[in-house]
Amino acid sequence: MPLPDLLPVVPFTRPVRGRLRLPGSKSLTNRALLLAAMSPTPVRLEGALASEDTVLMAAALRALGISVAADVSGTILDVSGQDRAFSTATPGRPVELFVGLAGTAARFLTAYCATAPSGAYRIDGVAQMRRRPMRPLLEALRALGVRIRCIGEEGFFPVEIEGGGLAGGRVPLDASESSQLLSALLMIAPRARAPITVDLQGTIRQTFVDMSLRLMAEFGAHAVRREGAAYHLTPASYRPPAVVAIEPDATAASYFQALPLVVGGTLDLPGLRPPGAGLQGDSAFIEVLDRVRRREPGVLLEEDFHEISDTFLTLAAIAPLLAGPTRITGIAHTRKQETDRVAGMAAELRRLGQDVTEEEDALTITPRPLRPGQVIETYGDHRFAMSFGILACRDLRGDGRPWLTLRDPGCCAKTFPDFFTRLEALRQAAHD
Fold first, then answer.
1. C-alpha to C-alpha distance for 294 and 284, rounded to whole angstroms
2. Using CA atoms, how far apart are residues 182 and 200, in angstroms rounded to an integer?
3. Closest alpha carbon to 300 in 268, 267, 326, 329
């Protein structure tokens, strides 16, 4: 059932209780789809995420000739027919691929199409996607012998890629704006005709790169050797198991891990792996919440979110409820994600009456009395909608009436289509 354009969130009047089964990881699902597409044998992905981003990725692979069959729930994906990859290309007509606002699909498909033996492939997305960083990946692929034409502004979508494959060699890559740029290059590098060395420049979110490398190993390609900032990759074939299990989404977990801080109670999230036990760096958010609970009232809480920046909005949105100021650092690169997340969060917290200091790489939030009756702009960004959805669960007025309205809550379809349905079910269960 579609959500309204304006959603007043009904708060909890009792503590949350029970359990919630999280959707699969978006980051892992789209990485696994790419690796499965490059594998010689059928692969089943179990526990996959069924959302806008993963649907776009699967649809693009189908458009390239690969079979991606989903069960009714969309959480089991069977990838096969990899020998037909790129078979849909015809002379004089590029294969059209649409990635919406999915950064993973955009970067991974650009890299994947660079491995095509022939044909032409045109990739585009929505207007916001046309402003997201692509230039470093495009330049690295060109250095590896791939012909790429930017149809509009240089360094941005839409792009047209001519098949011919990767020649190999040594290339520099600045992935400071998005670790996906490096992950995309690493995952396709084993398909090159000769070894590739990537000389990394700038700082990256290493946890997401490690996720890619560990998943590559799970798919049977132990082709990467790292020396400092250099990644050496040799040609290799992916040899995956028949079934690959996708972990529950640690980023999506952050909202429900924060919910008991907002409304009281406890919530079990079955299947979620603790920090260090799984592939997702964002599992470390629970350690941030532990420090929130332990700090003395009035003491500044300072947290570096560089490695887990997808979760910074979760903490920022509930910061008005905490017992002192909160300083969040390591987030400059999020200004070039779905929207400028630093500026957007500052604007919405100020709308709610908060004292916010915005820097290029940081936000400092000093709690002030919340101002009810406001409409929060989500900027078409799913993480704004979900983060402020959790804040809105606080019974601010003390009578169970909504005090906060979200604009365009349907943007959650990008990674968590039934987020508000799940949240409402928890609220009702708390009152039963």
1. 16
2. 8
3. 326
CA 234 – CA 35 distance, rounded (Å): 16
Residue whose C-alpha is closest to residue 261's, from 237, 240, 278, 285: 285
Question: The tokens of 102 are what?
Answer: 């999915």
* Polymer length of the chain: 432
- 133 contacts 107 by C-beta, under 8 angstroms: no
The percent of residues in the chain predicted with pLDDT above 90, rounded, is 97
Q: Which residues contact 45 (CB under 8 A, 6 or more apart)?
A: 29, 32, 33, 36, 76, 77, 78, 79, 244, 246
SS3 44: strand
Residues classed as catalytic: 310
Task: Kindly compute the dihedral angle of the four CA atoms of residues 334, 335, 339, 344, in this order, to the nearest 10 degrees.
Answer: 100
DSSP structure string for 29-40: HHHHHHHHHTSS
- Reported as a pLDDT band with limits 50, 70 and 90, residue 432 is confident
- pLDDT tens profile 130-161: 999 899 999 999 999 999 999 999 999 999 99
Please state the pTM of the whole predicted model: 0.96
Task: Quote the pLDDT of residue 401.
Answer: 97
User: pLDDT at position 202, please?
Assistant: 87
**Which DSSP state fits 223?**
-
**Phi, psi (rounded to 5 degrees) for 55:** -65, -40
**Contact by Cβ (8 Å): 39, 223:** no
Q: Distance of CA 207 to CAs 29, 180, 279, 306, 362, Å?
A: 16, 11, 8, 10, 20
CA distance 27 to 213: 13
One-letter amino acid of 325: P
Element (H, E) at 137: helix 135-143
Question: Which residues lie closer than 8 Å to 426 by C-beta, 6 or more apart?
Answer: 12, 16, 18, 20, 259, 267
Instruction: Note the pLDDT tens digit of each residue in 353-378.
Output: 999 999 999 999 999 999 999 999 99
As a whole number of angstroms, the distance between CA 219 and CA 379 comes to 37
* pLDDT per position as a tens digit, 161-211: 999 999 999 999 999 999 999 999 999 999 999 999 999 998 888 999 999
Q: What pLDDT does residue 404 have?
A: 98
Domains annotated for the chain, with CATH where assigned, are 6-21+250-431 (3.65.10.10), 26-233 (3.65.10.10)
Residues whose CB falls within 8 Å of the CB of residue 306, separated by 6 or more in sequence, listed in order: 203, 205, 329, 330, 331
